[in-house]
Design brief:
This protein is mostly helical. The longest helix has 56 residues. GO terms for molecular function: DNA binding. Keywords: Membrane, Transmembrane, Transmembrane helix.
Amino acid sequence: MKGGIMEKLSELWLAYRHWILISGGALLVIIMFFFTSMSHNNVTPTKMSDVNSSSVSNSPDTQSTKRFIYVDVKGAVIHPGVIRLSRDARIEEALKIVKPTSDADLKQVNLAKQLTDQQVLYIPKIGEQANTSDLGTPGSANSSETGSKININTAGKNQLCEITGIGDKKADLIIQYRQEHGQFKSVDDLKDISGFGDKTVEKIKPQLSV
């Protein structure tokens, strides 16, 4: 019985060995291709991760600060503070966001002036003479050049900062005092502001007027 089976298998081998060898070779190629593809797929996610990381770092969102400027708006506006604008924005566009108060003196403001990043924009009230550099209007000689005193009731922040001994913080405090208490009656009223002691006021008094 076994001899008969072996004989049949031998006959089949002799008859079909050519096709068996071809089929076996094709199967081997398919197996090798399958494992090569699997190996390639395992590497692909890492490469895609690198590509995604690169595209994120160069995406428009991460470079958005290049398209915008930030301006600090103070004075006679309903919503004072730092606002974001397009890089070519004008003062008129800033005022649409912060909304001028009813007593804002826009006649002093050059609405067509282009703003710059980190600029301080001060909007004066009617009757207040703000510094021209805060308004975007054509500038004039400052007090240090002309030798004139600075009026602490009308000076803008930049003009106040020209006073020897007055920096950004103290200039803001002077403007805040004016907004909350009205105009100074005398230079000595500066002593009512925290940080302005007798010695400080006496030192800067020759540069000031009311």
